[in-house]
Predict the structure of DUF1778 domain-containing protein.
Amino acid sequence: MATTAERKEHPISMRLPEADVAMIDRAASLRGRSRTDFVRDAAVRAAEEVVMEQSLIRMSPEGFDAFMEVLAAPAAPAPEMVELAKRPAPWEAGYEPKR
């Protein structure tokens, strides 16, 4: 008796305007990907984002208090960011690229 293998991939078909397909193809080409790979990755990334937005985070009252304490504490300056903020912008006089 023949056994059927469980399907591991499921086709998805959609109709898109030509302009949308052209944009997808251009973006896929810029990334060096096929249209299928590009669309699959974009769709999965968008789906993961939606699912993560809906995720419930549970913690104990003590854990929540500790979390809120960290959020309320003053931020410590990051030396790299302070140095970057002090540099003149490339369009300002006195700009010299860092080497």
In short: Residues 15 and 44 are 19 Å apart (CA to CA). The longest helix spans residues 35-53. Residues 18-86 form one domain.
